[in-house]
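We store chain and fold; example below:
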Amino acid sequence: MGAQWKAKHKDLAANAKGRLFGKLAKEIMIAARSGADPASNARLRLVVEQARKVSMPKDTLERAIKKGAGLTGESVHFDHVIYEGFAPHRVPVMVECLTDNVNRTAPEMRVLFRKGQLGASGSVAWDFDHLGMIEAEAQQPGADPELAAIEAGAQDFERGEEEGSATFLTDPVDLDVVSRALPAQGFTVLSAKLGYKAKNPIDPASLSAEALEEVETFLAAIDANDDVQNVFVGLAG
């Protein structure tokens, strides 16, 4: 959770698939500005692979690429905005947004943060590292993520909740290089993106069950906003 928060309950994630496709479409459109061919556009290739792995419809994927590359005649513009602050019980949060209207997103974030505290730029960023984050799974049982991290050039790794899964952490500029190297080390890349990891995450055990539920509810409301791409939380586990 200290890297990227994800809804854990089915009721909270009822519309997660549709939201995920919408978020990926934005990423694809932005990446496609640098070219519509994934073979020569590393950023586009990574997000296209991620979209295919979650079964995004082919026509939706192709439409997003063409729209982003300017091949449809439509104008595409998204601002990348980071909102910082605290969830209930002083849990630090960084919210990454892609929006076509900051004047809509900013007041929506202020409302969503009423049960926490919206901070100024830099108010919690100092307590997070900006990293490349690669989610991957072992191709064969027994694959060693530590060895794979060393050989692929990752800075570190974290074992995932599921057997054989891991998140490899990289310097931001090494994200594509490490993503390309991991398959040769026995790991299939599921997703690769830049993100934020808390330096001093709060131990969930230090919060009561009621307090933890308040934090989860707050995060779920943030994540449900259409302009929110990622939510990074200073909570361990």
User: Anything to note?
Assistant: The two ends are 5 Å apart (CA to CA). Helices lie at 16-31, 42-53, 58-68, 102-112, 145-152, 175-181, 209-223. The chain has seven helices and eight strands. The chain has a mean pLDDT of 90.
